[in-house]
Design brief:
single chain; 155 residues; alpha/beta; Rossmann fold; 4-stranded parallel sheet; 4 strands; 43% helix
Length: 155
Amino acid sequence: MKLLFVCTGNTCRSPLAEAIARKFAIERGLVDMDIGSAGTSAWDGAPASDGALLVGIERRLDLSGHRSRQITRALIGDMDLIFTMGPHHLERVEALGGEGKSYMLTAYPAHEGGRAINDPMGGDLEVYRATADELEAEIRRVFDRLAAERVPGAS
């Protein structure tokens, strides 16, 4: 299964989400997951922000090799599920062909509702920590749902 996390610049929220999801996939033994991230307004090749790197280090998430990338129709077409950080990201992903397989992270599995994940860009380390906490809770919920869908009778 191929998962993609999308934010604006692909330097804060989506790289953190990607790293968190990879950690959860490893912890759950989901070796068939291919997890990535991209941005709706990303500069290709930018590293993760300092705040994302530092919070990643605190949580044993390695973002040192992250390089941002712009979402494209081809990238979206290659994904099974796409999770966005806000409604404007969802609109952009759907405009590029992601309709029916893209969701706001906080709304999954519904196609409506949810709330945006706070953008920590420009904030202090506490803002990044709060965003990472929110991402961990939402991604854990997504993985629980995916596990329940994969295993009949699981909760």
